[in-house]
Amino acid sequence: MPPVLARLTKLQRLNVDGNPDLDTLPPELAQLQELEQVSVQGTGIRVVPEVLSQLPKLRYLSLKATPITTLPEWLSRMPHLKTLDVAQTSIPAEEIQALKQAHPDWWLISSH
């Protein structure tokens, strides 16, 4: 992903779906403070990028069909997150259940 992305400071939606060779998001993403939606469906990302924790307006995150196996603790503290798609991942059902209980107001999409 090109560093020039950081110049798109008004960007609200980022979709990099279907890029299996993409295994991380650049740190410059943190400069996109208006981002509300991020979708990394079908990418090679194995760990939820910590740069997402620096996006205060993030309300939708799709990790669908990625090789992610666990969710970071900071994800629970995202102030505006309302929709999380973890369908077709290997995240344990117990972890998803705990998240559902902790955030009954979230729309949590999963295969479990």
Walk me through this protein's architecture.
The protein has 112 residues and is mainly beta. It has a single domain, classed as Leucine-rich repeat, LRR (right-handed beta-alpha superhelix) (Alpha-Beta Horseshoe), CATH 3.80.10.10. The protein contains 1 helix and 5 strands. The longest helix has 10 residues. The chain is globular and about 40 Å long.
Briefly note the structural class of the backbone. mainly beta
Largest sheet, strands/sense/barrel: 5 strands, parallel
Helix content: under 10%
Q: How many separate domains?
A: 1
Low-confidence stretches: none
Overall CATH architecture = Alpha-Beta Horseshoe
Quaternary status: single chain
The number of distinct helices, counting runs of at least 4 residues, comes to 1
**CATH C-level label:** Alpha Beta
CATH homologous superfamily (4th level) name: Ribonuclease Inhibitor
Give, in order, the helices and strands. Answer: EEEEHE
The largest sheet has its strands arranged as: 1-2-3-4-5
- Portion of residues in beta strands equals 5-15%
The chain-level mean pLDDT equals 94
Specify the overall morphology: globular
Termini separation: 32 Å
CATH topology description:
Leucine-rich repeat, LRR (right-handed beta-alpha superhelix)
Question: Compute the gyration radius: what is it?
Answer: 13 Å
Let me know the number of strands: 5
